[in-house]
Specification:
Distance between the termini of chain A: 42 Å
Helix content of chain B: 40-55%
Number of strands of chain B: 0
Number of strands of chain A: 8
CATH class of one domain in chain A: Alpha Beta
CATH architecture of one domain in chain A: Alpha-Beta Complex
Helix content of chain A: 40-55%
Protein name (chain A): Large ribosomal subunit protein mL46
Strand content of chain A: 15-25%
GO molecular function, one term (chain A): structural constituent of ribosome
Radius of gyration of chain B: 52 Å
Radius of gyration of chain A: 38 Å
Order of helices and strands of chain B: HHHHHHH
Mean pLDDT of chain A: 78
Low-confidence stretches of chain A: 1-14, 23-51
Structural class of chain B: mainly alpha
Low-confidence stretches of chain B: 1-6
Keywords (chain A): Mitochondrion, Ribonucleoprotein, Ribosomal protein, Transit peptide
Subcellular location (chain A): Mitochondrion
Distance between the termini of chain B: 77 Å
Shape of chain A: rod-shaped
Number of helices of chain B: 7
CATH topology of one domain in chain A: Nucleoside Triphosphate Pyrophosphohydrolase
Oligomer: heterodimer
Order of helices and strands of chain A: HHEHHHHEEEHEEEEH
Number of helices of chain A: 8
Largest sheet of chain B: none
Organism (chain A): Oncorhynchus mykiss
Mean pLDDT of chain B: 79
């Protein structure tokens, strides 16, 4: 804060000197007042130059993510490892009730088939009931499993259009919209221009809510922007006042929402972003979109 | 008369009557005590031991003694009852007897050489895979943090006010709840059936 103060202090003195030179000695009585007014004028001009000196237009954009709904499929190595873990656990475990029953049944069978089989003794022990062996039960269960049709985990197998929120339930998707920027309509993250009197986060929220025919309920993660994209306008459009624009991105998670299929929305995975975004834009955006 | 005097030794309130009677008797016709010095000393005789042995006079001492005995017994009972409360057993920590059975032990599998080699190699590959995964994650997080830092820098160059607004924490963000991914996707408009259950958990009271 020291630097601006010294600059402020030096200015009115310079103004005062020029005033004195111009007006001469006639206005010596008014010196004090002119000093005060010069001081105020200096601050006013300084603040004006400050607000004017920023030649960048500000935009607030939202990176709306739909988090994954189901777990991802395993890699081959993950599959192998899971199998190995299961095997090792089985080897280190004790026998379960079902396995013990299997052993007992097999022993009983061997005793029945032996020569010195005493059926009276055996039946006295087991009460003469017709027991269902554990093996029979296993067979019936296997038969049932064959007839069972489980529902598909991932309901779309590449069938749903890109605009649907239901596609790729195992990955996190990002919302893209088509907006006119300058002369072209390009795919980008939904953005809105900043207006005085609001924070950039509010700009981003406005950008999201102003999308036509879409009510997304999003939770914004804090007031801090997660990324910035700065670009200069092409030479024809460039003026003294606005050299270019800065787009500040805010992260949000989708909690609930619906959108009609007609609107130009896209829900894309991180790997698919390349096909839609411009390279310079993509470079900046790719950094903060995490695929975790 | 002398025998009566002897019995009047160690007097209590009642024998005062005896004094009055004796005095009036001694005074007699004359109206004044004209007996010798022996009579005067007799008057000061107190009541004797046999008079003390009356059952009425033991009321104060015995109830006190009985009470003391009762209190001592009660104190002893209280000391015995002051046992520390029994600790509630943690059922998770006690292995059920069912699993200590020897017949349940699975025979140790004899792995062939190839199988054990395959397992060792697979474990090493897995650790390498996990290491690359971890490095990638750390890198991604680093990039995201760097992007945020740049964004704040640019914002500060723009306007201090917006920068300060961006730095303020959001009080409405926490508590933040989110249902993580499940194995199967949720059914639309699914109503879970209300079921009955018998709660058989053991409840211990101390």
């Amino acid at each position: 804060m020291a630097a601006p103060c010294s600059r402020m202090a030096s200015r009115p003195i310079w103004q005062f000197i020029t005033n004195v030179r111009r007006t001469g000695l006639k206005h010596t009585g008014v010196r004090q007042i002119s000093l005060g007014s010069a001081c105020r004028a200096a601050t006013q001009t300084r603040s004006k130059t400050e607000s004017v000196a920023s030649p960048w237009k500000l935009y607030g954009a939202v990176c709306l993510q739909r988090l994954p709904v189901i777990s991802q499929e395993r890699n081959p190595i993950e599959d192998q490892f899971a199998e190995l873990m299961h095997q090792m656990e089985l080897e280190r475990s004790l026998l379960s009730d079902h396995e013990q029953r299997l052993l007992e049944d097999s022993e009983r069978m061997t005793r029945k088939q032996a020569d010195n089989y005493d059926s009276d003794e055996e039946e006295a022990d087991y009460g003469g009931q017709e027991t269902i062996t554990a093996q029979d039960q296993e067979d019936t269960w296997e038969q049932k499993l064959k007839h069972f049709q489980p529902a598909l985990r991932d309901r779309d197998v590449g069938g749903t259009p890109l605009g649907s929120v239901e596609r790729c339930l195992g990955d996190s998707l990002v919302l893209l919209v088509q907006q006119t920027v300058g002369k072209e309509t390009i795919w980008l993250l939904p953005q809105a221009q900043w207006e005085a009197g609001e924070t950039l986060r509010q700009t981003a929220e406005r950008g999201l809510s102003s999308l036509p025919e879409a009510d997304f309920k999003a939770t914004f993660l804090g007031n801090t922007p997660c990324g910035v994209y700065r670009y200069t306008f092409p030479k024809e459009v460039r003026t003294e006042r606005c050299v270019g624009a800065k787009v500040f991105f805010f992260k949000a998670f989708l909690s609930a929402g619906s959108a009609s299929q007609k609107e130009p929305f896209l829900w894309v995975k991180k790997t698919e972003l390349q096909g839609y975004l411009k390279p310079a834009y993509l470079e900046k955006v790719d950094r903060f979109i995490l695929n975790l | 008369m002398l025998s009566c005097l002897v019995y009047l030794r160690n007097s209590s309130p009642l024998p005062l009557i005896w004094y009055v009677v004796l005095h009036s008797f001694l005074m007699g016709v004359d109206g004044h005590v004209s007996q010798g010095p022996w009579f005067a000393s007799v008057l000061t005789l107190k009541t004797s031991a046999p008079l003390r042995a009356e059952p009425k006079k033991k009321k104060k001492v015995d109830p006190r003694r009985e009470q003391m005995v009762r209190e001592r017994l009660k104190k002893k009972l209280k000391k015995l009852e002051r046992v520390p409360p029994e600790l509630i057993p943690i059922e998770d920590f006690t292995t059920p007897a069912k699993y200590m059975d020897e017949t349940r032990v699975r025979g140790a599998a004899q792995l062939p050489f190839e199988e054990s080699e395959r397992r060792a190699l697979l474990l090493k590959e897995w650790s390498r895979y996990k290491q690359t995964q971890h490095r990638a994650e750390m890198e991604a997080v680093g990039l995201a943090v760097e992007a945020q830092r740049e964004a704040l820098e640019e914002l500060r160059l723009e306007s201090e006010e917006l920068y300060q607004a961006a730095l303020r924490p959001d009080p409405l963000l926490f508590p933040f709840n989110h249902q993580g991914p499940s194995y199967t996707p949720p059914k639309a408009q699914y109503e879970a059936p209300e079921g009955k259950y018998n709660n058989i958990t053991k409840v211990y009271t101390q």
